[in-house]
Structures are given as structure tokens and as C-alpha cells.
Specification:
heterodimer; A: 248 residues; alpha+beta; Heat Shock Protein 90; 5-stranded mixed sheet; two-stranded antiparallel ribbon; 8 helices; B: 128 residues; alpha/beta; Rossmann fold
């Protein structure tokens, strides 16, 4: 093997290792939630009413962990999905579906999810499964981060999309989470695998979701960037509008 | 009844710890925001602090230094209940000694019963 090919492989392996380390942080949180839920259930003598509640909670924690694993698997195959599998996708319908899926999880963190899509928004050209996975793990990370950053009775998270420049559509997650600027994202990208908390404003167990979503978006469209939607700050990815459907 | 301050960034984990301790007649006040935690706590009645070191926006160690700066809180026992492994926080061993940390537990290995037992051990001298 040539030296340059070897060093390229080494750097790819290092990047994968860094990503896995980041991922393990976020996967350990749902596992801990299930573990403590079982501890509590045992302590409550496996009472039937408590068992139902803990089963529901554990199921949501499992879903969150699986979302992350799915996103990671999509990321590994991102190159294959980059061009070939792109199809016209309705952003509004996608965000509605994600909101529906995340709502039970969000309720645990006293968070309400709203969908806000600009009127007459064109469909976008994207790999549907990857777009779903990226926005889903970004959303669940923001739910956790928001509840960890400030103590409030209720929180709001908006899944939003609006027209952007150059025939692009910006779609993302908006909330009152602070400390997620373009600058902190750039710093976090360089700290992946090196720091326990690459995003200092976000607690452990929420950062990897943001970073995996960023990598997935970066591999398929454009990396996450800071943006605002109806004065609410957030992170978006820019997706190309589907030209084909504009003429329909 | 012991008054315990819990600083845990994840609301679900905090809820589980609160419920587990409530079964053992311990009142746990859970906070994610460190400033609110300091403000909300009745310093005279506080018996124990259980905290995660990895918090949002601020270092847990920085918080501990501030916490110990209050004369009323210098003798309150502190248990670190964290996702950080022993070897990862070994570099802080001198800091923890200076800050009078009573116990360090690794979340994936310490069940809630181990945490409760550690808490009971910390609270025992005060009760005597």
C-alpha cells in the first residue's frame, strides 16, 4: 500500500474512532435512563401501575438510542446516498412526522413541539431517510439541552423551514438553547473525539446528537449553521429546492 | 428528614433519583441550573449534595469551588455521581481532596441503591 493511501486510511479511521467516542456519550444516556428506571421499579416492588409508566419511559429512551444508531449507520453510507437516492421531499410533511414522533419524548422534558413552515415552500431534493434521521436526532438533543440549560416550567421547540438564498430551503430546529453559534459549531467539529464536551453549552448526552446531525447534513447537503426563525434561534441545514416540481 | 440537593442535567435521571430517595424518606431538590441551585437551597438545612460534573455551560468543579466558599456549606458532604470514569477524573484527585468530596460514583456501575447507601453513610454522622 502506498504511503499516502495508508495515511488517508489512518485519518479516516481516526475520524471514525472520534465519531464513535462522541456517539457513545449520547447512547449511554438512554441506557442510564433505562437502568435507573429498572432500579426504581425494583424499589417499588414491581407495582403494576409503576411498571406501566417505567415501560413507557424505557421505550422512549430505547427509541432515542436507536435513532442515534440509525443516524450513525446512515452517516457511514452517506457517500452512497449523496446523489443517487435524492428525491423530492415535502419539508412540511417531514417536519410534521418528526414532531409527531418526538412529542411523547418531548413531554418528558416539559417541551411542546410546534411546526412552522413558510407558506408555499417548494419540495426539496434530499435523501428522505437521512433528512428524517438528522432532524430527529437534532431535535431530541435540543429537547435535552434546553431542559438542562435553564430551569423553566415549560419549553418550546420549533421545527421550522423557510426559503433561503439561491433556491435553497433552510430546515432545522429552533429553541431557546444558547451557545450554538457557527463559531461554537466550528470549534466543536475540531474537538470531536478529543473533548468530553465539544459543545460546552450543551450537557453530555446531548452534544453528540447535534454533531452526528451536523456530519450527516454535511455529507449530504450542507453542514448545520446558526439561523433564526420567527426570532427564535436555532440550527438549520440548507437543502436544494426540487427544480423538477417547480414546473408542475 | 434529610434535605438533599441534586444537580443533574438530565431531567429523567433526576426524576428517578428523586423518586428512589423519596421512598427512603429523603427530600431531594433537583436542579440543572447551578445559580438557581445555590439560590434555592436552604443553606442551614442542607444535609448532602449529589452532583454530576458534566453540566451545561459551566464546569461542575468551578461550581464546587463556589459552593465551598459559603461558610455554611463548607462541611456539607458532597457525592459526585457522574458519567466520567475514575481514570478520567483522576487528574482532579487533589482538587477533590481540597474540596472535601466524600464519594465518587460512576453512573454506569453504581445503581440507585449504591447511591442511596453512599448517601446514608454521608448522612449518618450528622444524625448521630
Amino acid at each position: 500500500m502506498k504511503k499516502s493511501a495508508f495515511s488517508r486510511e489512518q485519518s479516516q479511521l481516526a475520524a471514525q474512532r472520534a465519531l464513535l467516542m462522541t456517539l457513545s456519550e449520547d447512547i449511554s444516556l438512554p441506557l442510564l435512563q433505562i437502568k435507573t428506571s429498572l432500579d426504581l421499579l425494583e424499589n417499588q416492588g414491581f407495582a403494576k401501575t409503576a411498571a406501566r409508566q417505567h415501560a413507557r419511559e424505557s421505550s422512549l429512551s430505547i427509541d432515542t438510542g436507536l435513532q442515534l444508531v440509525d443516524a450513525y449507520k446512515l452517516l457511514l453510507n452517506a457517500e452512497a446516498h449523496a446523489g443517487a437516492a435524492a428525491e423530492p421531499v415535502s419539508v412540511g410533511a417531514t417536519l410534521e412526522a418528526i414532531a409527531h414522533k418526538l412529542t411523547p419524548y418531548a413531554k418528558q422534558y416539559n417541551t411542546t413541539i410546534e411546526v412552522s413552515v413558510q407558506h408555499r415552500l417548494n419540495p426539496v431534493l434530499a435523501h428522505q431517510a437521512s433528512l428524517n434521521a438528522a432532524l430527529e436526532i437534532l431535535g431530541s438533543s435540543i429537547i435535552r439541552a434546553q431542559a438542562a440549560q435553564a430551569e423553566q416550567k415549560k419549553y418550546l421547540m420549533v421545527l421550522g423551514a423557510h426559503k433561503s438564498i439561491d433556491n435553497l430551503v433552510a430546515a432545522g430546529v429552533f429553541s431557546s438553547v444558547h451557545g450554538l453559534s457557527d463559531r461554537t459549531l466550528r470549534a466543536a467539529r475540531s474537538l470531536v473525539g478529543k473533548a468530553r464536551q465539544p459543545l460546552p453549552a450543551v450537557p453530555a448526552g446531548a452534544a453528540a446528537g447535534v454533531l452526528v446531525a451536523d456530519m450527516l447534513c454535511s455529507a449530504l447537503w450542507q453542514p448545520l449553521r446558526a439561523a433564526a426563525h420567527h426570532n427564535l434561534p436555532g440550527l438549520v441545514t440548507s437543502l436544494p429546492a426540487s427544480k423538477q416540481l417547480q414546473f408542475v | 428528614m434529610a434535605q438533599i440537593l441534586l444537580i443533574e442535567p438530565d431531567k429523567i435521571l433526576a426524576g428517578h433519583i428523586q423518586a428512589y430517595f423519596a421512598n427512603a424518606d429523603h427530600k431531594v431538590a433537583a436542579h440543572t441550573d447551578l445559580q438557581q441551585a445555590i439560590a434555592a437551597v436552604d443553606k442551614a438545612k442542607l444535609s448532602l449534595v449529589i452532583m454530576e460534573l458534566q453540566l451545561a455551560g459551566r464546569s461542575g468543579i468551578e461550581f464546587l469551588y463556589e459552593f465551598r466558599s459559603y461558610p455554611d456549606l463548607q462541611r456539607v458532604p458532597v457525592i459526585i455521581y457522574s458519567s466520567l470514569k475514575q481514570e478520567e477524573i483522576a487528574v482532579y484527585s487533589n482538587v477533590f481532596r481540597d474540596l472535601g468530596i466524600d464519594r465518587i460514583l460512576y453512573k454506569p456501575e453504581a445503581s440507585l441503591s449504591v447511591l442511596l447507601e453512599a448517601a446514608a453513610n454521608c448522612l449518618a454522622p450528622a444524625a448521630v
